[in-house]
Amino acid sequence: MELLRSNLSRVRIPEPTNRIYKQECCISFDSPRSEGGLFIDMNTFLAFGKDYVVWNYEKTGNPVYLHVKQTKKVVPEDRPLKKPTLLAIGIEGGFENNEPQYDEAHSVIILPDYITLPFPSVELPEKVRLAVDAILMAEGAERKKQLAAWTADKKQTSSYAMNLQQIDSGVIIPPSGWKCVKCEKRDNLWLNLTDGMILCGRKNWDGTGGNNHAIEHYKETGYPLAVKLGTITADLEAADVFSYPEDDSVLDPLLAQHLAFFGIDFSSLQKTEMTTAERELDQNTNFDWNRIQESGQDVEPLFGPGYTGLVNLGNSCYMAATVQVVFSTRSFCSRYYMNQNLKVAFQMAPADPTLDLNMQLTKLAHGLLSGKYSVPALEKNDTVDAATPINDKQEGISPQMFKQVIAASHPEFSSMRQQDALEFFLHFLDQVERVNGGRPELDPSRNFKFGVEDRILCSSGKVAYNRRLDYILSLNIPLHEVINKDELEAFHKLKVEKNLEGKDIANDEIVRPRVPLEACLACYSSPEEIQDFYSTALKAKTTAIKTAGLTSFPDYLVLHMRKFVMEEGWVPKKLDVYIDVPDIIDISHMRSKGLRPGEELLPEVPVDEVESNKIVADEAIVSQLVSMGFHPLHCQKAVINTSNAGAEEAMNWLLSHMDDPDIDVPISQEAQRAEAVDPLKVETLISFGFQEAVAQKALKASSGDIEKATDWIFSNPDASVSDDMNATTSSSKSTPNDSELPDGGGRYKLFGVVSHIGTSTQCGHYVAHILKDGRWAIFNDNKVGASINPPKDMGYLYFFERLDS
């Protein structure tokens, strides 16, 4: 006790603004549930596992720690499970994680001799008691950040509900026996709350569902709200109300009143239909879910180094699947595990290692690859006072700190919403490259990077070469190259027959298009015609031919299948297609040959000609607008953005853009900003199915706003990429340097597949399959097992390793 009193100056009572870590070690994945518990530094409020707390003592000299140890409570095995209502894991309404309950014990520890003082105890100094109480009462920093990021997909109140007009046409809805007034379908029926029409819902891709009569009725009438019959019960909040203009399931606070208008007594109705969320969940837990997750298969669990699962933080599977594949590569394994000592990384880290990306990458690598946490989960035996392993699962590690630091600069990844694994992969490699800036010999991301060269052949016979660097090869899927046309034709006939009979297609009857990977690679390399290309040789617009090739072959080649296309409302829709992917591919034919003998480059665009092509505001129109009281800068922007069309057009533009966040940005800065396009946003638009050059042009035209860029593309369906490609010639001033990148032969072996289950990037689940130790393993969050039938034909991202000649 005297030793504790002599160190009271090293004890702090935490303020409300202090971040207190008490759920996980900041340099390992030890937690209060680990064998040695967790030690919380009572000066910095950072937490450390049993094997690492002495490192902190040596680095900081802080001797006083709060020790927290949790032991599992015994829970009855017959506890009822709740039915999931959201396509998510580990969140309210989603699939249960079946988290056990724990008892918690506390003590005060003084280093370096690990002197233990019990808590609670009246003998402890008041400052220590207050400090411990404050630490235990505070919300942990890990949990606080998670709560701040989480925005649950709860239904919002419709803006159309409070003033909904209802037409009295004498319609009274019976309590049962409903059918669509247009096709007599008796399920998936929706009651329009304006006129009382009962119509069937949307048709699914496989022929199931309705015949689109409800949404067609909305398009004809504009009546906004409909409720799904069969979901109305005494619990009106559970009823499925859909708003067509808001394109989402919504809450209708006046639903009881709106139903009573058509004579519906909701208190007596029973639930007979799935809600939209339940139907989506049901569809996604059927064929694709089972196939990709290998549900129903007798999967052998795997444990040990390299077989550590990742706990789902709530829609974090996109991150888990991606990092499992990336950290299985030799480059990342060497950089952050084999050649990076955990203690050295901690010593080099700043005062708060939770904010240091290098520390958290090292921590994650050691957690995944050491095997320390890849052990069977333990269960308390009621008859023997010992813990026995459960053979079919492991607890895995929680990548909470890693997620916070890797996503710190990205608002979407900082949230708890589902994200696109491709976009995360690119963001991850970008952050790794930044943290290793200036030290290419240490940067493992460069093993994924390669050069791409576009060759543009003008009708004049002259050529231009554009070069760029990339991490992924994004491939269109040529559906006209399907290899199972006969089976598809038979399936479409079957769908028509089933539809006429009012029957649904069974899962085992579904036939999907099957396209070989070779066709996708050939499509990437095939010539593409560019209309209205401005040739600096002809000084006129003409037609050009563009072909693409690779200037270097990376150690690891990542292929992205463009399975998501844009549907109405700019919602990404997933192509339902299989890709035949061989274990070995050869892309040697895709190497770009550069400038060929006898070829002549298109002349460069003179600087004065580029300047002369820029639109300058007509001062006469600007003066007219200024005289009306508008700001001169705003007037100049309006005139430029309407191409000097006139005062009326400029004023209309001005009135609709007065609230733009960049309305006060000087035109010169705006031009500079327009030249710089965020590559991650370009990849996002590419994943929607747009060409890269069109995506770049759209982002430049919309100041980098993805939503505005998408709007621009749809508003300019004939948009040409020629303006951005006008006679760009090979130039050392603008050509990226790929001479220092890894390069080699073009033969590659498949070693990883990231698959997606769900209808769009905004929902669903990601799973990774990785070839390790000569066999395929499935990584499904914290579940790791030997794969029996890896779904190689259902991948979203394919990872290949170059075979050295």
TrEMBL record:
Catalytic activity, as annotated: Thiol-dependent hydrolysis of ester, thioester, amide, peptide and isopeptide bonds formed by the C-terminal Gly of ubiquitin (a 76-residue protein attached to proteins as an intracellular targeting signal)
Coiled-coil blocks: none
InterPro entries xref list: Papain-like_cys_pep_sf, Peptidase_C19_UCH, Ub_carboxyl-term_hydrolase, UBA, UBA-like_sf, Ubiquitinyl_hydrolase, UBP13_Znf-UBP_var, USP
Keywords of the record: Hydrolase, Metal-binding, Protease, Repeat, Thiol protease, Ubl conjugation pathway, Zinc, Zinc-finger
Name under which the protein is recorded: Ubiquitin carboxyl-terminal hydrolase
Region Disordered, annotated ranges: 721-743
Residues that coordinate or bind Zn(2+): 180, 183, 200, 213
UniProt-listed SMART domains: UBA (SM00165), ZnF_UBP (SM00290)
Stretches assigned to the UBP-type domain: 156-266
PANTHER family: UBIQUITIN CARBOXYL-TERMINAL HYDROLASE, UBIQUITIN CARBOXYL-TERMINAL HYDROLASE 14
Native species: Rhizophora mucronata
